[in-house]
Fold this sequence. Notes:
Helices cover about 25% and strands about 25% of the residues. It has three helices and five strands, in the order H-E-H-E-E-E-H-E. The chain starts with a helix and ends in a 7-residue tail after the last strand. About 10% of the residues are buried.
Amino acid sequence: MKVIDHLNAAKGTLFSIEILPPLKGKSIDSLFNGIEPLLEFKPSFIDVTYHREEYVYKKRAGGFLERVSIKKRPGTVGICAAIMNKFGIDAVPHIICGGFS
């Protein structure tokens, strides 16, 4: 079901959850463990927030600084698929417009 379908079918206020993907290299189990207790509230869907890359400056030879982009969290589409597979609840990647120029 799409989010718009949840909205159209609602007979009252909807409840959804917004989460952050785990940091890269961390287990998705911590995310699942955080979601499980909230399922008793019957959220209509789960929104997975995307975080744009960050920049760090690395010192290079000759005293120059190089700006390097890093992504601290995995993509939202894969996290959404894992949530939908494990819990059978709709999950939506929350895409932001910043950082795509």
